[in-house]
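Narrative summary of target 7.
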Amino acid sequence: MQIQISGGKNVTLHSKLSNFIENELHRTLHRFDPQLTRVEVHLSDGIGSKAGVLHDKRCTLEARPRGLPPLVVTGVAPSTQKSVSGAAAKMKRQLNAT
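Modeled conformation, tokenized:
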């Protein structure tokens, strides 16, 4: 499974975050590894660093299973790591349902 990570406006990709994302996706989706050709990770921070905004970190995952149309899920949370974990859990449920 190939993992491609892209950060949007207000998101800084650094090696610690990239490693977390790759480890989280491998841990959560390892069962589907033979079926998946690629997982694209799109990170965004809708508000930036404005005070009082709780759930503005967004992670959209697009998984490409062999022979099937792409599956897309989104996780929204107060931190990028939590949004990635939430999106990975949603993707696992989607893949179980297909």
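The beta strands are 2-7, 36-45, 57-65, 71-77.
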